[in-house]
Every structure is written in structure tokens, then in C-alpha cells.
Amino acid sequence: MSESKDITGSPDAKSKGNGRLSAVKEMPFFVKCALFWLVFIVSAAIYTRLDRLFGQALPLQDPFYQGFLFGGASPVEGPSLDHLLGTDILSRDNLSRLLHGAWVSLAVAITVVSFGIVFGGLLGAFVGYARGRWETLVMGIMDVVLAFPPLVLLLALVAIYKVRSLPVIALVFGVLGIPTYVRIARANTLGVASREFVQAAEAIGTKRIWILFREIVPNILPSLFAYALINAGFVIVIEGTLSYLGLSVQIPEPTWGNMINEGRRDIRRTILPIFWPGLFLTLTVVSLNMLGDWFQQRVAIRSSAL
Amino acid sequence: MGKILAARLARLVATLFAVSLLTFLLVEQLPGDPVTALLPPEALHDLETMERIRTELRLDDPALVRYGRWVTDALQGDLGKSYITDQRVADAIRDRIPVTMELALLATVIAAVLAIPIGAFSAYREGGRFDRVMSGFTTASLSIPAFVAAIFFIWLFTLKFNWLPSTGWNRITDKGLLANLKTAILPASALALAPLAINARLIRADMIGTLKEDYILSARAKGLRSRYILMRHALRPSSLTAITIFGLQFGALIGGTVVIETIFALPGLGTRLISGIYQRDVTMIQGITLFVATVYVVVNLLVDLLYLLLDPRIRRQ
Amino acid sequence: MNKSWLKIIAPLFTVALIAAACGGSDSDSGSSSSSDAASSTETEAEEETEAETETTEKAEEVIEAGTEAEGDVDTKVEAVVEESSYGGSVIIGLEAEATGLRPWEDACSSPCLVMMKAMIDTMVERRADGTYGPWLAKSWSANEGYTEWTFELQEGVLFHNGYSFNAKTLVDMFELQKVGAVAAGIVSAAKVAEVVAVDNYTVKYVLSGAHSAFPSFLYGVGLGGVFEPNAANEDFDGFSMNPIGTGPFMMDKRDLDNETIVARNPNYWMSDEDGNQLPYLDSVAFRPIPDEGTRLDSLLSGTTTMMQTLRQGTIRDARAAKADGADITLFEFQGNNVGGGMFNNSIPPYDDVRVRKGLTHMNNQDAVIEALGGTGISLPGSQWFSPDSPWYSEKAAAAWPKFDFDAGKALLAEYVNDPDRSDGRAVGDKIEVELSCPPDPTLILAIQVIEQLWSASGMVDVNLTNYDQQTHINYALGAPPDFNGSHGAHCWRWSSNDDPSTFLNTQFAPPTLGIAAAYGLDGIFSPINFPNYFDIEMFGWLVGAISTDVFEERYALYEMVMMRLARDVPVWYSGHTATLLAAETNIHGVNGWVLPDGSLGAGFPAAIARWGQVFIQN
Lengths: 306, 317, 618
Description:
The structure holds three protein chains of three kinds.
Chain A: H1 20-26, H2 29-53, H3 67-70, H4 94-130, H5 132-146, H6 150-160, H7 166-193, H8 196-203, H9 208-244, H10 256-263, H11 272-305
Chain B: H1 2-28, H2 34-38, H3 47-56, H4 63-75, H5 89-124, H6 129-143, H7 146-160, H8 172-211, H9 214-221, H10 226-264, H11 269-278, H12 282-310, H13 312-316
Chain C: H1 3-9, H2 13-21, H3 42-47, H4 52-65, E1 89-94, H5 110-119, E2 124-126, E3 132-134, E4 137-142, E5 148-153, H6 167-179, H7 183-189, E6 192-199, E7 202-207, H8 221-224, H9 229-234, E8 249-255, E9 259-264, E10 283-288, H10 292-300, E11 306-309, H11 312-323, E12 328-343, H12 353-361, H13 365-371, H14 394-399, H15 405-416, E13 431-437, H16 441-455, E14 460-466, H17 469-477, E15 489-494, H18 501-507, H19 513-518, H20 536-545, H21 551-568, E16 571-584, E17 587-588, E18 615-616
């Protein structure tokens, strides 16, 4: 819920990937499961996009097809071979809607994370290294945005400006997500900048911009990635909340949040239409958190090993 | 100490100024005539009313002048009037803030009270079964979205077991503490899940560090009982971190109650914000946003100051 | 910009606006319907002990009949109210909080009216047979041309603040009503020019044009709700929190969004048939519980003792709960109010009747109702009146373009393949339709069904939009001077149980000044003609219907109007709004309350209870 402000550990190892596969092998069992789930969700989201691209030619039910109108299913069916996770209130296939819904969550999360790492990371590294007046100004602006509880500013923005399309929503999320990355990047940069190799580079007269990109940025990236994983989970929850309130992307586009909203009406009869999207949301966030924790620990261990 | 205080206060003022400007611009940047954004549709055809409001709000003044006036009014506790319900925004906030405050407070307390034993015992038996089970639990409770938990709680405790009401609010002043807790416990628990997890983890990490300190080791060597060590020695220094974290969480929860209040239909600030959003009550949205951000900033500052006050290392400086 | 006409038309606005758009069957209307329109399963509940199967059978019967339970309606107040029946409280869960409680100023929807009716009496009330009877007005008469209406008032009526109610009250009230955000529109629709105190207890409403159904306007709280004008003038905004009326209850505590409590008015002017002072209850507590499921649940778990709903899905759940043995009485009602939508007839492609009719043919009403959980609860609509209404026309029902997918497709194909199609697209291109609805939980389901149906034709691209209520209405309304609206197709609600003139006459007046001028109707123009549909012949019938008070003549005219709407399809209907008041079985008097002349009242239209004669008997 609250973005802990303490995630400013300053690992400063150069992350030389010592083989992706070996990294996966080192993972504890549960972290492997988490990775597996994330891979599944990401592939599902991509698969559903491809499915739409090919006019629903791929083997997956149409997430908009209402069986009770044209035959094939009735509302709120239990799981069956035709509908592995049953149908929703409008007799649409739950599984298909869940997979299609993954796209919105991921699109928003990926936008925030890439905005954060690219813009936030660069800006933070820049002001952290350059210091001076720029630093004061930029950090001041970031403090103002961070002065709003995360959900409240988003709610006000989305509501007042009547934002309904995915690209714009992702953009709003992305921009509002930057400040925390700036903070983390800056804090890490301060640590890295005082290290011997940076001072050595400065001593031999390497251009400062060169140092920024060659020495500092690669060294703050691991901690940014670790935060990004956890932040992605947080963003998915916030998007789900907005969706639940009917303030995210336009229906009929399924999202996990609006599926929960639609399922609420029949909660007295069955919890299933709420349970599935709730489960998908929770599992995805759990996975991101576990992976994030694991990654952070690794980063910390490596930096302490230096 | 005095210097730090002055610096913090100066920064607070600057931040609040910027926050108010941003909140003002939020509405100022709306496309079209601001009057049309403020008024309900039935008033839009009544040019007289529109003119009256335009004069009343002196909308023809330059934006900077209006901002100045808005801030001056806000400082005097006047956040304007909703043109949808004719209610003063400040009154609406005053009526609703007790509920939101209580929820946030109760959630903070639940999160703190449960987290301390979980964190402490996990640390004491680091890597043991309890520690591992709790680590799974904290990961789950950190990850489950509050609104999903809230709906699940309603399903379980109201629809299935019929233990607690899923809606409504008994005010302490009217119905007493017990009746109040009956309506507050479900929403507060849903809110407490994430902070509980964070607290438990932080306390655990902090304690593991503390337990390795020399004076604890020597206490153990002296053969003191483990619970005694935990309570007397280890928890003490850790409480500093905890206070900071609890404070920060309380601030964040003021904003976090929005959805939970809506789901449980509680007469709090969040419900008012959401109904303002559904009614497009721009003055209300603006006022509540400003208020919540201000509380958030001030609480965070107080926590900082408290930290300074309590931490002996800093105090000595 | 010409401001003078705006001044004229501005007030017109709210009438239909409030009735049509603001969710729920909002209008302050009551029931026009005969006594069997209102249903009560109360009597059944008492007999229930014998065999539980009977209840279920009854329930099935109800569903088969597709309308309300045909429970017997009490023809008089139940039994004799003993002294011991005095006292007790009702706690009712409402679907929303009232934005305000000033009858002349605040748009008041069903939950708001449930509260307001406890404190504010109206001039006239509606009887079970659909006619209007005395309340604060004892009797009335009109001059020959229906331009002057004289009302005799009840004497000895006191307001909650001790002031007495008389003719001057109404004159003072009118000063506020003329400019009231809500009342001004009604004043204008009813053509009230002046209110004159003839003597202390006689008041005359002078109209600027004939209106043969004028008393029906004094039934709604907007114009007919009697409030204390001095209190209103003293504290205009504060009146909203503490309304002063002559009603059976007085404001006790208003805790916004949480609980509003009203307490017995010891000086209430009415007594029951046996001369017992009314009201019976000590107090009523109103709790807004927006979530449908939790509202029903609060009743079943005893947190509240009564609830209202305007959602068919909740009615279904309440019926199921009762069938499972819940100890509740269900007061179901189905009125004229009908959900559906409208096309913006002023812009392509909706300016072509083939598109409007084709799309309407493809709207599977039964499916929409099923999606809302209202199968067997809500009736599909074919006109502005439900089958219970005296205005209902079989002819219009037969003429309405019912669900016929192929017929709809054929009409759309004709348009799509027309080289002169009005949207200027190439032959064979899809029609683009924008369907806009407020983000109401049930509408969200309904529009997804309609979107599927329209898209399934293969000839329509549907874009859905959901904006908040205010924006939704603004888009429908459009901007001065033409008020054409930027919308394509819109979710909307039509009709109420009021006299048809109160809504039809304003909603189908010329939509722009230009059109008015073209037909020589200078200045008569209505921005709340949201569909921007105008038919001069139909407008003539509408005017004719308020120039006579002979029912048969008026019926014939309104039937012709309905036939024209079925031919041109400027608006479409899905299902009628079913409403429910559910109460613990010891709560009585929701049904069977009477007017001062002893005639049976209209029950609980649109889930709005009259509190004065409600009592608790164990």
C-alpha cells in the first residue's frame, strides 16, 4: 500500500550477468514459481493481442461473446470443459477475459516501470551526480508530486479529465510514477559517485558525461530494477482499484478490476466471478514482490561481497 | 536541533505552496469555461446563474489572482462551496474526517500490534518454521489488493458467517466504542494487511540486526530468559524504526481509505471524494485533494521530527 | 447571444432532466396505476405458516405472469390500530444519500423522496385508482378554459417550527419556486403565472395557458411540496439539512452519508379513521447503503428493518431470500418509468429512420432484462406506459418495433447500401454508432449486451463511452443556442407515473429556435427535447391533450403520440423499472394508507413510502 521510502539501499556492483540460466537455477522454489506465473501472464497478454490481430483466429474463446444471446453458454456457469473457469454475469468466458485483462495491467505496469527507469533513472543519476541548483529544483518538484497520496492524485486527474483510453491512462500512471525512481536513482548515485573507481575516472580527466553513462548508470540499474519489480505490483493494484471504481479503461475491454466490479452484483449467489480476477491480481502481485525481494537480496549480497 | 526544525518547516511551507498550486491547476487547466465545469447541467441554461457564479467567483480575474484568493481562503479554512450540493467543502471535510482518521488510526494500530510479535519471533527463530510460514503470510498480505480483501471479507464475515455488518458506521459519540468497533473492524483490517506485512518484515530485519549486537549476546550469555531479552533489550532500539514507519503508514492510509470507505459505505472523506468524482463536483474534488495532501505532508513531517526527537544519536548533536 | 429566450426556456429544463436521466425512477411521481399495480405479499406472508410450498408456488406464478405479485391489496387500513401500536422505529436502507432536501431547489430522486415524504406534505396525493385526491388541499376546481385553478386548503395545519399553513404560505413559496433550480422548470411547464391568496384558506393558481391536468403538478414535491417559506428565506442552504414542512415527522439528526433520523411530529394535522393522532411511529432512520447486495443483506441480518431498491437483480435476490424463509414482506411495484435510450435525431446516421428502427429491432429486450437479473420481474417496454397504466395502448404495443434480428439487419443493410446514405460514407461501409451511458453498475451490463447485439449485425461499429452523470447529461443536452448535443445514442429513462402531459409536452416541443420558427411556433422551444425529434402533427396532439379533461379524448391523443413514436423511433425502450420496498413482517401500513377523504392511497410507487400511517405490530 504505502510505498516504503526506505528502499534506498545502495548496491553498487557492476551487474555483469553471470548467465541468465544459472540465475534461474539459483532461485528458491517459490521464486521459480513466481517467475513461471509472470512468464505465463506476460505470454497470455501477448497471445491475446495476437489473437485480436488475427481476428480471433487463435484457439481462445472470444472474451466479448455472450453465450446467452447467441447460444453456447448461460450466465454464471461453473467450470466446465468449454469454459474452464466458468462464465461471468453476461455469460462470457471467464478464462478468456482474465487473459485479455492481463494486457491492461501489464501495459500500465510496463509503462510505469520503463518511464521510471529511463526518465526517472536518468534524471536521478544526473542530479545526483551534477548536484547543485538542479538537484534542489528537481528534487523539490519530485517532493511535491510525492506529497500526494498515490491514489488520490490519480483519481482526481483521471476523473476531472475524463481519461478513458489505455495509452493515456498508462501515460498518466507513467508520469506520476517517475518521482520515486528519481529519488532512488539519486540516492544510489550519491553512493556510487563517492566510490574509488568514479573518483579515479575523474582524476584522470574523463568527461563527466562519460562517467555518468559508463560508471554510474550501470551501477544504479540493479537497485532500480529491484524496485521496479515491486513497484510494478503496486501499480497493478492501483490500476485494478481504478478499474474497480469504473475509472480506468472503457468497457467492454475486460480488466481484472472491472471484472470484480461486474461480479459484485451476484456475490450473494456465487463468488467465482470475483474470485478469479482477485486471484489473478493477487498472484501476479505476489510473484512480482517475491521476485523483487529475491532480486534485491541478490543485489545486496553482491554489493556487500565487493 | 533548532536549525533542523527551521529547515524542515521552511521546506514544508514550500511543499505545501507547490501542492496547492498543483491542485489549483488541476481544475484551472480544464478545457472550456470554468463555470460549465463547476455547475450541474440544469444550471447551465440559466445564463443568470452562470453570470452570478462568474461574478461570485470573480472568474474573469487573472489565474494568479484567483489562485492567491483561493489559497488565502483555504488558509482561513474556506475551501469554497460545492455547486452540486450547496455544501461548504470545509464542512463536508470536517464532518467526515473523524471516520477516515479513525479508520487509518485503527488500521495502523492493528498493523503495529500484530506485526511486533510476528516480526520479533520470526527474528528470534530466524529461518525456523515460524519464520518461514510468516514470511509466506507477509508476502501474501502485502500483495492482496485492499479492495479485493475487503470484498472477500464481506463475503466471508457477512454473507457466509453473518458475524459483522458489512456497511454503515456507528459513531463512538452516539453508540459507544463497542458498537463502533463492530462497524470499523472489517474495513480497518482490510486496510491493515499491507502495512502489517511491511511492519513485520522491517521489525524482523531490524531485530535480527539488534539480536547480533554485543549487549544482547552478553545478556544471553548471562542466561536471561529469551522473552525477557526480546522485550527489554531488543525491542527497545527497534521501536525507533517502528515509530517512523507507523507514522508514515498512517499518513499513507489517509489516502488509502478511499476505496475501502466506498466498499463499506462509510461516511468518510474517501466516500465523499468518490461521490464527488461521480457527480463531477469539481470544487469538492479540489478541496479534498488539497486537504488530504496537506495532512499527508504534515504527518510525514511530524514523523520526521519525532524521529529526530527520539533518536539519541541525533539529539546529542 | 439572445438572452431573453434563454430566460424563458431555462426553467423548462429540469423537469424532464431530472425525470429522465438521474438514475432510478426518479421523478417524484407516484403511481397512476390501479390498485393491482401495487402489490403486496403481506397477506400471503401471514398465511404462510401452513405450507411453505405454497409460497414458492406463488412466487413461480408471479414470475410466470411476468408482472408483480398479485397479492390482495388491503382496501382499508389493516385492522384497528390499537394504542399499543404506537411507538417503535423503522430503519430503512436507501440506495443513495439525498443531495439536498429543499423541495423547490434540490433534484430529488427516489431515495431522497423516501426521506422528504416524511417531513414534507404535498398539496394533493394520488389515489390507488390513479386519480388525484385531497391532502393539504381539501378540494379544487378550474374555470372553463383551465387557466385558473382554485384550491381550498386544510385548516389548522402547523409547520414544524410553529408557523401555520395558509394561503399566504403558498404565495410566499411561489416566490422561491419561480427561481428554484427544480421548481422553476415545473412552474414553466405548468404555465403558472401567478399564485393569488383569495382568502386565508383559498388560493388561486393563474396559468398563462390552458392546462387541464394542472393538479397533477401539485402532487410532485417540486411544486406541490409545502415548505415553510420564512425558514427557507432565513437560511437558504441550511434548509437542506433541516427541512421545515407540515409532515408527520420532523428532522432530528442529519449525519450525511451515514444516518438521518426523523422524529414524530406531535402536532401532525392528520388522524386515522378512528380519530387516533398520526403518525404511529416514534421515528424513522434513513441509511444510505449504495451497494445493492449489502443493503439487502442489512435487512436480512436485522441491521435495518426495511429497504428499498430500484434494481431488478436485487428484487430477484429478495424474492429468493423470502422463498428461503426470510421473514420479510415484499412490496413490489412496476410503474411507467422505462429504461432505454435515445438517438440524436439531428445528426447522421441517426437522422435516418432505417438506422433508428434497425438498431431498435436488434435490441433484444428480454436479453437486456435477463442480464440485469430481471427476468420475470421487469416488463419489456413498448411505449411510455406500462400495461397497468390507464394510458397503456395495445395498438402502440403492437406497432412498436420489437426484437427481430433479421428485420433489423435488413433495415440497416438498406441504409448501408444506399448510395445517398446520410453519413456520407461509401456504400457497404459500416455504420459508426456511439453509445454513451453513465457508469451505473446495471447500465454497464446493459450496454455491453446492446453493443454485442448491434455489432453482431456485422454492419455497425459500436463505441461505448461511460462518463459521470453530469457529463452524460451535458453531452445529451448540448450547448446554446441549438442544444443539439454531441451525443449519438444515449442511455436514458423515459416517463413516470405522473400525468403524461408533465413530461411528454416538454420533451417533444421544438428542439431549436430555428425549427420553432419554421413552424410558426416562435419562441416555443425546449432544449430538453434531448432526442432532437420534432413532428408538428404530434406536437398538435400534445397541445390538444392539455386542453381537455375528458379522459377518452386525452387517451386517444396520447395513443396517437405513442403510435407516432413507434413509427419514427426517436427513442427506444428496454424494460420498465421494477421497484421494491422490503420490510420485516411486523411493519404494516406501507400499503393501504388512506387520503383525508377516506379513499385508498397509491401505495408505494417507485419504492417511496408514505410514513404517516406506517406502524409496527408484533
